[in-house]
């Protein structure tokens, strides 16, 4: 693949437009030869290089010249009449398709190179799908038309059949081309009928909208058709770069010959200068602010430093330590997961007396540059493994480690990277409740069509589980690669829905839900019917007719699928799907029995059910119950201590109803309440002391020297605990609301005095909660004010959440009331089985209590001041 970037060099002086054009090709289609022709015709190089001569301008790495293929993406700069051009050369071999795909995210359009003698290959169709995925306009250049067997009409017909009917020969008769182009879109036909022609602007729009794919024919080696292609790109290609606000897309991480880290990016808006500060988030979501040291413009293996990179330019930046491919900077968004994925995993064999801990950081550098390598460290076995696309990439990886780190490594024979999924709907339950921790999660696992990946959702109303907890649970589901129970392989094609969940008012923190989620997913799969998936290749097999019977027999023995043979000149071609495990290594076998005439092209074909599931599972010998890092068991609590419950017994202990049960089957809430573990007075007092500090006794003293007559205790034998939503009560009380408008602190103090008098009379214990959620940096506080407890929640914690936790903690055995007019808190209190009182009702109660206190004091001839609640005056 080759990518052209038509960019402004100096925007203030140069009015040339900015374009990003990618040239893609299957291996040996003539991509590098075409790039050399472009560089030569535009005056960048004096003599065009050749792959077979090992002197091409961009394939300058020792491994590339020895192999004769492009391995690393590199760039060159040259000028067109209306554009400044950056030529970015990227791999065409299928094993390096991930590297090529990363470059597509920074393109405006692409040129697809087709060999005139080979036609549309399997990898060509893969590239076409990628271009469609990234919605890139496409120009097609058919190369090697100077060779025998290249048929212009035949190739054009094949393009229209296999790629798109809108592939049109732009070099044919102008009138005929105009008429065919007009058919590509209804608006274009109207323009054509009205004016009798389509202008350059209309043709440019058709290409940009992927309604028209213009085709050119020629030879890069003989320079035929290359000038016409460059002129068309300069004339019809459209630019996406621009905008004043800074934006950039990182597409590659590399290192220079000194080992300095380089972040390759395209500036999509604004500009980028050295020594400027750049804010961004790492792959882990952590914020970073780093200074850019240098902004480099590369051409081949050399670079120049620039004082400013403008929108549309490709540059390499030093000074950024945690950028990653696909990352958006500034206003630019991140790119999603790449389509190309590795299907083979190889164990890395290190030289004797080499410590894995020393080698691992070096290999991580290679993964940083190519994330699809995925270097994996297994602590149990002490082995390092790497995920690769195929044999060629494996050989390059060994050579690259040697050239970069002077380390002679080997690779084992490799193994297939299996996946697992479920066959039917299942419920997963996870409970995590060691002492002073609590979380329970119920997840619904449902199978999805092949290739869907993992989808996550929630069906839980926010009045049943707080939104913040739900978001945390969904994050916990997504943050980990969950393993199946057949072979310990990653799971895929599953929809995971949060069906229900429960938090503790006091003891739940984020880590508790993480544990519950991991256990719930695993528990659900332990009880479900699992399916083992294996990777398949989409193959194209071309060979002499006399060997077609042998090939079909081989494909059948592989449990593969094949199409009816199609004539391709004097050869026959079959296509289909076959397991990677069986097809791996077949290329050498084909070359042997076809005497070098057969050709095999392999592309990732997706994952399908393994035909030999029982055999593979037995061979791998994975024991899911021994995998303690991915346990399906839960932790419950009784008598002040946590205890483990095996996965198949969890549903006998769970606190929430099954999400798969019909409503009629579900256990009554009253029975659930009775099953809860009781706490005694001593434990309850410990809870209050942990929350508010040591309890001060006596709770109430008359302010006069002589003791007042005994205050009538209006409570029942069961002790009263009242939790008050402070701000809700203030703003429900007209007098305090008016005071709060003038001075909120005074309103809080007045309310605290009123509630202190109330508790002195009723002997109730009361917690007054104020919301500190939106106070930046607020750590929260707990204190006693006379005979009441006062709590200010910390930054990020709402009073709702605090009250819900506290009510659940002490409301299981005692008479607890929650005072608020907030409907969400009242509903939560209902679920916790505690009493609810609206703010208006409680104000009336406070007024009545104040009257009783006044009567009592008058009868005792006491002159102590009592807060007059009726008129809000102290």
Describe this structure in words.
There is one protein chain. The chain is an alpha+beta fold and 874 residues long. Helix 12 crosses helix 13 (510-526). Mean pLDDT is 83; it is low at 5-13, 662-679, 696-716 and 870-874. The strands form 9 sheets. An 8-stranded mixed beta sheet has the order 3-4-1-2-5-6-8-7, sandwiched between helices. A 6-stranded antiparallel beta sheet has the order 15-14-17-10-9-18, with helices on one face. It has 25 helices and 40 strands. It is 31% helix and 26% strand. Strand 30 (566-568) and strand 31 form a beta hairpin.
**Spatial extent as radius of gyration:** 36 Å
Helix fraction bin:
25-40%
Largest sheet: 8 strands, mixed
| Strand order across the largest sheet | 3-4-1-2-5-6-8-7
Number of strands: 40
Strand content: 25-35%
Structural class: alpha+beta
How many H/I helical runs?
25
Compose a concise summary of this entry.
This protein is of the alpha+beta class and 874 residues long. The protein contains 25 helices and 40 strands.
Which short descriptors sum up this protein?
25 helices, six-stranded antiparallel beta sheet, eight-stranded mixed beta sheet, elongated, 874 residues, alpha+beta
């Amino acid at each position: 693949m080759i990518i052209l970037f038509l960019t402004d060099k100096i925007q203030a002086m140069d009015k040339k437009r900015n374009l990003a054009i990618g040239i893609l090709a299957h291996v040996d289609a003539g991509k590098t030869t075409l790039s050399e022709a472009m560089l030569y015709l535009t005056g960048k190089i004096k003599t065009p290089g050749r792959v077979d001569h090992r002197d091409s301008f961009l394939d300058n790495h020792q491994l590339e010249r020895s192999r004769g293929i492009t391995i690393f993406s590199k760039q060159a700069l040259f000028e067109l009449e209306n554009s400044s051009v950056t030529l970015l050369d990227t791999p065409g071999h299928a094993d390096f398709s991930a590297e090529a795909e990363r470059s597509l995210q920074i393109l405006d359009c692409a040129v697809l190179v087709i060999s005139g003698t080979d036609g549309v290959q399997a990898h060509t169709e893969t590239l076409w799908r990628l271009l469609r995925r990234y919605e890139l306009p496409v120009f097609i250049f058919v190369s090697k038309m100077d060779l025998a067997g290249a048929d212009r009409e035949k190739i054009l017909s094949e393009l229209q059949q296999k790629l798109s009917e809108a592939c049109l020969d732009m070099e044919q008769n102008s009138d005929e081309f105009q008429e065919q182009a007009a058919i590509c879109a209804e608006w274009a036909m109207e323009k054509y009928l009205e004016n009798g022609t389509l202008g350059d602007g209309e043709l440019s729009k058709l290409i940009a909208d992927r309604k028209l794919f213009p085709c050119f024919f020629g030879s890069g080696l003989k320079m035929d058709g290359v000038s016409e292609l460059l002129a068309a790109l300069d004339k019809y290609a459209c630019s996406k770069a621009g905008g004043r606000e800074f934006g950039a897309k990182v597409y590659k991480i590399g290192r220079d010959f000194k080992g300095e880290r380089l972040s390759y990016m395209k500036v999509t808006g604004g500009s980028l200068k050295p020594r400027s500060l750049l804010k961004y988030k790492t792959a882990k979501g952590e914020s970073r602010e780093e200074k850019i040291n240098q902004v480099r413009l590369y051409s081949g293996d050399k670079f120049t430093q620039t004082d400013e990179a403008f929108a549309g330019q490709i540059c390499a930046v030093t000074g950024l330590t945690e950028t990653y491919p696909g990352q958006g900077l500034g206003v630019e968004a991140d790119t999603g997961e790449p389509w190309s994925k590795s299907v083979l995993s190889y164990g890395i064999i290190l030289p004797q007396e080499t410590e894995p801990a020393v080698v691992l950081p070096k290999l991580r550098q290679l993964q940083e540059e190519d994330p699809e390598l995925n270097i994996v460290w297994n602590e149990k076995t002490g082995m390092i493994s790497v995920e690769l696309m195929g044999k060629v990439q494996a050989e390059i990886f060994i050579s690259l480690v040697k050239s970069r780190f002077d380390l002679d490594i080997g690779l084992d024979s490799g193994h297939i990277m299996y996946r697992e999924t479920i066959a039917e709907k299942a419920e997963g339950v996870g409970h995590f409740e060691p002492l002073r921790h609590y979380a329970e999660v119920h997840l619904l696992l449902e199978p999805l069509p092949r290739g869907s990946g993992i989808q996550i959702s929630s069906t839980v109303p926010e009045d049943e589980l707080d939104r913040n907890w739900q978001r945390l649970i969904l994050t916990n589901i997504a943050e980990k690669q969950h393993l199946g129970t057949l072979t310990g392989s990653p799971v895929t094609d599953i929809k995971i829905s949060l069906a229900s969940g429960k938090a503790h008012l006091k003891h739940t923190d984020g880590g508790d839900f993480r544990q519950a989620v991991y256990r719930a997913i695993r528990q659900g799969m332990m009880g479900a019917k699992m399916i083992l998936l294996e990777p398949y290749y989409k193959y194209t097999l071309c060979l002499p007719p006399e060997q077609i019977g042998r090939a079909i027999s081989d494909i059948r023995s592989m449990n593969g699928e094949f199409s009816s043979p199609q004539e391709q000149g004097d050869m026959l071609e079959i296509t289909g799907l076959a397991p990677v495990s069986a097809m791996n290594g077949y290329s050498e076998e084909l070359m042997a029995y076809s005497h070098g005439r057969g050709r095999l092209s392999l592309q990732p074909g997706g994952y399908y059910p393994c035909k030999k599931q029982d055999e593979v599972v037995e061979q791998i010998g994975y024991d899911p119950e021994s995998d303690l890092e991915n346990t399906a068991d839960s932790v419950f609590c009784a008598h002040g201590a946590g205890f483990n419950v095996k996965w198949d017994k969890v549903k006998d202990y769970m606190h929430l109803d099954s999400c798969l049960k019909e409503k009629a089957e579900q256990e009554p809430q009253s029975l659930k309440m009775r099953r809860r573990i009781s706490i005694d007075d001593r434990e309850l007092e410990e809870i209050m002391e942990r929350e508010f500090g040591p309890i001060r006794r006596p709770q109430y003293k008359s302010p006069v020297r002589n003791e007042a007559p005994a205050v009538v205790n209006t409570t029942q034998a069961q002790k009263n605990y009242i939790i008050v939503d402070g701000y809700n009560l203030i703003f429900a009380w007209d007098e305090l609301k008016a005071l709060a408008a003038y001075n909120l602190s005074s309103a809080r103090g007045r309310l605290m005095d009123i509630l202190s008098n109330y508790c002195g009379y009723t002997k109730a214990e009361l917690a007054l909660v104020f919301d500190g959620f939106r106070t930046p940096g607020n750590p929260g506080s707990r204190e006693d004010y006379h005979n009441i407890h006062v709590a200010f929640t910390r930054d990020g914690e709402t009073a709702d959440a605090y009250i819900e936790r506290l009510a659940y903690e002490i409301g299981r055995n005692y008479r607890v009331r929650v005072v608020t007019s907030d409907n969400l808190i009242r509903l939560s209190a209902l679920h916790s089985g505690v009493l609810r009182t609206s703010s208006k009702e409680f104000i009336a109660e406070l007024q009545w209590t104040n009257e009783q206190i006044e009567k009592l004091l008058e009868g005792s001839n006491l002159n102590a001041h009592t807060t007059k609640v009726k008129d809000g005056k102290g």
